[in-house]
Specification:
Layout (H helix, E strand, L loop, with lengths): L8 H14 L13 E5 L11 H19 L3 E5 L1 E2 L3 H14 L9 H15 L2 H9 L9 E2 L3 H16 L3 E11 L4 E3 L4 E15 L6 E5 L10 E4 L13 E3 L6 E6 L11 E4 L5 H10 L25 H15 L2 E14 L7 E10 L2 H12 L4 E3 L3 H10 L4 E2 L1 E2 L9 E3 L5 E3 L3 H12 L10 E2 L3 E2 L2 H4 L2 H4 L10 H6 L2 E6 L4 H15 L5 E6 L3 E2 L16 H8 L1 H9 L8 E2 L2 H22 L3 E2 L6 H26 L3 H24 L3 E2 L2 E2 L2 E2 H18 L4 H11 L21 H24 L7 E6 L3 H6 L1 H8 L1 E6 L6 E5 L2 E5 L7 H26 L2 H6 L2 H28 L1
Length: 876
């Protein structure tokens, strides 16, 4: 087989992904003989395209699912998309606007046709992009939150919870998005610090004036009272008296409540129940009038009496000028405050009293709270339990209605007199009306369905169950086999309004958790620490990164430094490092496949020692990697694998076993050494496959003759075996020695091709005799002698002394100075280890093997110090 000099990711990735798909390697079906391993994708919005957060999240999911598949589990990764009510409706409205069509001129049915058309055209883009990344989803199982079965599940859930009296309708203060013209949840409100003006306004009264400070002068016309603290001596004479609202001269009372902080501002608070959550509560307590002076798109309405039809921010500027002209403006100060903005549209949120549908959370949330706090459901990292606990202890009723057309329409039907009937369909609502109210003359035409749709999260909270049709057919084979799922990988910012709600739904409808572990990724940030976003223009296009560095390069680049729950400071150099890793593997493969094999040759003694060492190193690393996986230390698992392949296999093992190069020609290799090397390469490709699926498949397929329709995807993940710690320690010393010899050559400007004699002072002569051929090959040593005193350029490694005879190249003063530096470093190192071991908390809490490792380091340092001091004494 002719191998190209450079690895070509694009060609390889297209070839193998097509091959995997054609042969159905990602497909899954219930198998009673196998343990299921299930992941459901956090469904990306149909409006979305792949961004860096998706890359991180889906790479981790793919690593987990590929590893499970190789471990012989029935691995099922369910893909899908979310209909994203607000975002999709905004996209469609904008698209229609470009065509000169106004949503208001369309019927609901006409608008929904455009939504479906848009979804069918653009909705699958992100899933196609995930294939470029190598995502091994069971694409036949792709679901969409608005498809029929999932739609019906949402409606059935609403009806069920309504009948359980957990859902109710009422007037409450909500977060209103004036651009989308809908309510949004607390979690969809992004707090942004903004510079504002603090306006001091004088309210005049017959018994005295009061001054209030506000950032929202455009709402003064909706004031219902002025509130002061009952203990504030400045205003005792005004409590119960009247003052006039400037510009409209409407009288309001001065009331007293301890809610007002005397030290804050002027100690006087304007109470505007319709436009502030705290004022709303205060208004209920004091039975104040509620005046809503804003339209749904945040313009002043007739109740404002002035500036009717003006946008709220335009009105703010005009009112400040009007207050100045009327003499009621006391002063204006620069002020910085937090302003709530809509995550979906960026519009400034308006607190608004609105008739909405709510889900009571008290009863429902208890099992979900308890089972995360007792680790039945594990959050990774566990630090997020504190956040979760805070949210769940202070849980508020969930506003589940949205004033949109795209989404799951609320199954509530109204009679002419306002009577509300909740049912799965208009037909069922009619039946209830006839049975319950004896309205036999009623027809479906007499019923009007609620105009609102449900919050998008009200569908995705059912996702782990609905994707397996757990509502349509609650006892079907899929739901019984795959549910509960194993791992969920998602972002911390949706811990409450998606993760917690899925757990709530799981306990309510299946009596158990929806997943066992929740791996919470960090946020991908740029080098300046800013969150990557389109608006900042600091986010690279993931597809362009894949084109440039290959999918394997981007996957490993994303995960080189991405511990759970911690933000990832992304640098494109990480992807370059990932690409270099692929190239390193490819070059090692080319090297091995380029060897000439001679069956008649005996096994090389250096290779024998190399096999012995690398088998233990490989087994040790597999155990280490498995431990990292079990603790969801994904970056650590990758780095252990990376170091094993790059350093131990490519830089050490292959150097030991590769045939000599004489007179410009590579010498032949014995067949046993070649087969051992191929076997190691095979195992390494299986170990790295979850991280680098494409290059590992390419190399694995070409390491040996494979059966038709074979794939590394379902080969066994390495399980490791016995580890000879003595051999590992011996080679650690050898590699340190070789490194010293190479550095010495470089320092003394001696060619690596020039052979040098080495003297060793040691009590373990047998080990060095056995490994002499390894040392000679790696360090280009002409002969090894065992001496009473190391001479020439010397060093000490783990108590043994080594001397290189450099002939006339030795400068004794320079040697003494270097040895003194080495001694000072060893003393400093010893001191740092002693400090660590003197820390009782470390010794008591660290794993025994870690403590022992530190003690071994101390013993090595003491031995080295002793040898260096003796050597320096002799040179004095």
């Amino acid at each position: 087989m002719e191998l190209s000099k450079t690895y070509s990711p694009k060609e390889t990735e297209d070839k193998w992904y097509s091959y995997w798909m054609e042969n159905g390697f990602f497909k899954s079906s219930p198998n009673p003989d196998k343990e299921p391993y299930t992941i459901v994708i956090p469904p990306p919005n149909v409006t979305g395209v792949l961004h860096m957060g998706h890359m991180l999240n889906n790479t981790i999911q793919d690593v987990l699912i590929r590893k499970a598949r190789m471990e012989g589990k029935e691995a099922c990764w369910v893909p899908g998309t979310d209909h994203a009510s607000i975002a999709t409706e905004a996209k469609v409205v904008a698209m229609l606007k470009e065509k000169g069509i106004n949503k208001a001129d369309l019927s609901r049915e006409e608008f929904l046709e455009y939504c479906w058309e848009w979804t069918e055209k653009y909705g699958g883009i992100i899933l196609k992009q995930l294939r470029k990344l190598g995502a091994s989803c069971d694409w036949d199982r792709t679901r969409f939150t608005m498809e029929e079965n999932l739609y019906d599940a949402v409606i059935e859930t609403f009806v069920d919870l309504y009948n359980k009296e957990d859902i109710y309708r009422g007037y409450r203060m909500v977060n209103w998005d004036p651009q989308a013209k809908t309510t949004v949840s607390d979690e969809e409100v992004i707090t942004v610090e903004r510079p504002q003006k603090l306006i001091y306004i004088k309210y005049e009264g017959a018994d005295g004036d009061v001054i209030i400070a506000t950032t929202r002068p455009e709402t003064i016309m909706a004031d219902a009272a002025i509130c002061v603290n009952p203990n504030d001596e400045r205003y005792q004479n005004l409590i119960g008296k009247k003052v006039k609202i400037p510009l409209i001269n409407r009288e309001i009372s001065v009331i007293a409540d301890e809610y007002v902080e005397m030290e804050f501002g002027t100690g006087c608070l304007k109470v505007t129940p319709a436009h502030d959550q705290n004022d709303f509560e205060l208004g209920k307590k004091h039975d104040l009038e509620v005046i809503d002076l804003l339209t749904d798109d945040a313009k002043l309405n007739e109740k404002a009496q002035i500036l009717v039809g003006e946008d709220r921010f335009v009105a703010r500027k005009k009112i400040i000028k009007m207050l100045e002209e009327s003499g009621n403006l006391v002063k204006v100060e620069d002020y910085t405050s937090n302003v709530g903005t809509s995550e979906r549209t960026g519009a400034v949120i308006e607190p608004k009293i609105s008739l909405q549908w709510f889900l009571k959370m008290d009863r429902l949330s208890k099992p979900a709270w308890e089972n995360v706090m007792n680790d039945t459901v594990q959050l990774i990292p566990p630090k997020f339990k504190n956040t979760y606990n805070h949210w769940m202890e202070n849980v508020r009723d969930w506003c589940i209605s949205r004033q949109l057309w795209w989404g799951h329409r609320i199954p509530a039907y109204y009679l002419e007199d306002g009577t509300c009937i909740v049912a799965k369909s208009k037909r069922e609502a009619l039946k209830i009306a006839r049975d319950k109210y004896q309205l036999f003359a009623l027809s479906e035409k007499d019923l009007t369905q609620d105009e609102d749709v449900l919050d998008t999260w009200f569908s995705s909270w059912l996702w782990p169950m609905s994707v397996f049709d757990g509502f349509k057919n609650p006892d079907n084979e899929d739901i019984n086999y795959y549910y509960p799922t194993n791992d969920l990988v998602t972002a911390p910012e949706i811990l409450f309004f998606w993760v917690a709600r899925m757990i709530i739904a799981g306990y309510e409808y299946k009596g158990t958790f929806p997943f066992r572990n929740v791996y919470l990724t960090g946020i991908v940030r740029d080098k300046q620490g800013r969150k990557m976003s389109k608006s900042l223009g600091n986010s690279p296009d993931p597809i362009e990164l894949i084109e440039k560095y290959g999918a394997d390069g981007v996957r490993t680049g994303m995960l080189f430094s991405s511990p759970a729950g911690n933000d990832l400071p992304f640098d494109e150099k990480l992807c370059e490092q990932g690409r270099n890793f692929s190239n390193k593997i490819w070059n090692a493969f080319r090297l091995v496949k380029g060897w000439n094999v001679d069956d008649s040759l005996p096994v090389n003694p250096v290779a024998k020692e190399a096999f012995n060492w690398f088998r233990s190193k490989l087994n040790s690393t597999i155990t280490e990697v498995q431990d990292h996986y079990s603790k969801y230390r994904m970056s650590d698992a990758l780095l252990s694998t990376y170091n094993l392949i790059w350093n131990d296999f490519c830089s050490q093992y292959l150097e030991m076993v590769k045939p000599a190069f004489i007179n410009g020609e590579g010498q032949p290799m014995d067949s046993y050494s070649y087969q051992e090397t191929i076997a190691f390469f095979d195992e390494l490709m299986r170990l790295v496959h979850p991280w680098t699926p494409f290059i590992s498949e390419e190399i694995w397929q070409n390491l040996a003759e494979r059966e038709e329709k074979s794939t590394i995807c379902i080969e066994e993940f390495p399980v490791g075996g016995k580890v000879n710690d003595k051999v590992l320690a011996e080679f650690e010393t050898i590699f340190e020695l070789v490194s010293w010899v190479r550095n010495t050559r470089q320092l003394k400007q001696i060619s690596p091709k020039e052979e040098l004699p080495l003297g060793i002072k040691t009590a373990d002569k047998a080990t060095y005799e056995r490994l002499a051929s390894v040392i000679s090959k790696l360090a280009n040593i002409s002969e090894i002698s065992f001496v009473d005193e190391a001479e020439g350029t010397t060093t000490v490694i783990k108590g043994d002394e080594f001397g290189l005879d450099l002939g006339g190249n030795v400068d004794l003063e320079e040697e003494r100075a270097n040895m003194q530096k080495e001694l000072e470093y060893a003393l400093g190192f010893k001191n740092s280890v002693e400090k660590k071991l003197s820390n009782e908390r470390f010794v008591q809490n660290a794993k025994p093997e870690i403590v022992q490792r530190e003690r071994d380091k101390l013993a090595d340092a003491e031995s080295k110090i002793k040898a260096l001091e003796e050597a320096l004494a002799k040179m004095a």
